[in-house]
Amino acid sequence: MVSKTEETQLSNLETQVDNGGGGAWEYLCLVRKLKVRRSDRVLKHGLSILNDPKKRSSLGPDEWTLYEQVAVAAMDCQSLDVAKDCIKVLQKKFPESKRVGRLEGMLLEAKGAWAEAEKAYSSLLEDNPLDQVIHKRRVAMAKAQGNVSVAIEWLNKYLEIFMADHDAWRELAEIYVSLQMYKQAAFCYEELILSQPMIPLYHLAYADVLYTLGGLENLQNAKKYYASTIDLTGGKNTRALFGICLCSSAIGQIAKGRNKDDKESPELQSLAATALEREYKQKASDKLSLLTAALKGLKVSS
Amino acid sequence: MAEDLVLDTAIRDWVLIPLSVVMVLIGILRHFVSKLMRSSQVPDAKIVKEGQLIVRARNLRAGANFIPPRSFRARRFYFSNEENGLLHVPKGQAPNPQAQMFSDPNMAMDMMKKNLSMIIPQTLTFAWVNFFFSGFVAAKIPFPLTQRFRSMLQNGIDLSTVDVSYVSSRSWYFLNLFGLRGLFSLILGEDNATDDTQRMMQMSGFGFDPTKSLGAEKDSLDIVQHDWALPKFEQRAEAVLRKILS
Fold first, then answer.
1. Which residues of chain A lie closer than 8 angstroms to B235, CB-CB?
2. A190: distance to nearest CA of chain B, Å?
3. ipTM of the predicted structure?
4. In this entry, which stretches build a coiled coil (chain B) (predicted)?
């Protein structure tokens, strides 16, 4: 997670570097530390440092880190020649290194030579079966080839060992959603909520999945999670507001024939609707009529 | 009080300063030697998995109230059922760390390497100091001390009449041995190999048993009362919305 101060620091440095104000190395360090994806800029500024022998040698041992960073960025930008050169230099410096081996695997991957990359990765994994990055690369490779079921298989294998890695759980959840396997996705989102209970995005995604699953109980739960999203975001999440309206109307439809003794907070729905209306009035007044029509449709059915 | 002893300046130049310099150099040498000898430890898959498992179980315990009761119960069963729950360690199967240590030659080897890099230079320098500088009064502390410090400061001199504030060469060696840690962490960085105390702590923590923490986690998971927090959130959401609407 990137905090607000770091973000402003990053953007300040970014404008400074882009306008030729120096501080390229600091910028690159910050990008590396925050693990943000700014491949084009990293490539441009990193390369300008690397091509200047004086600047490069002033980095000392950090020079090699920069080579690695630029290589990865170059692969991301499809400048494979640059990446190749960087990796060659690293290879010369660290002939036996596994980290360089990983970069070579990634280069093969960037070229689209899947079989060779796979071979390179599996030979690296033989040496160190607990290399998380390589496991993840494999998942990414399967996904890039469109082989989603294989990606799921790899991810499951990875999560069997590294079961506290919430990023992997998130990836798995998103893959499951894309395959419409909502029950599995719901499990993954539960896992995410457990590991970071205060992040509203997970509550929202879980609610979406529950709503899609349907059924009275799931809908009620979905409504609860939409409510928690509203609480955690301070009512600023439009999707959650819509979710409340949709859930209430769907619950109303299902529970129409039955006895309504478990009547739960009818007020929430109307409050959400008013909040939505107000938000639309403020930000997109030309679409207000669409909203009112949609809300009316929901209310009629309930 | 006996009259002040006059220490020859040659003692300062040839005993006090060389001793300190040698101690520093040996410390630095030891750091690099142990760095060379350190074998990169490949973590065992099982240990990694257990660590991750504990983190996940702890998460479940902490965030239990945020997931629906049914999901919580399913997870708890998955973690702690008596047949094949992940946290359940069958009795008698827990590996004894002591036995494990002896069965794994690498582990013993590693410890031996560490110990050797610590003990050998120490014995050598001690022998060297003993041989060349035994019986020297090497320095004087500028403040008086009580008799209790005699064994600490005048190791190697068996005279009870010498004032306690004089330091013998052997004691100077010991003072250097233990007192240079701060200097090393300045020169060599924070986590240097010369830090003996830290190693001692590691050694005492060596008997750490992961299966025990698994069992403890299981027990505390078993007694968690699930109290779903989400129904309360509806009221809270209402309150939030009312607040922004008003």
1. 265
2. 6
3. 0.77
4. none
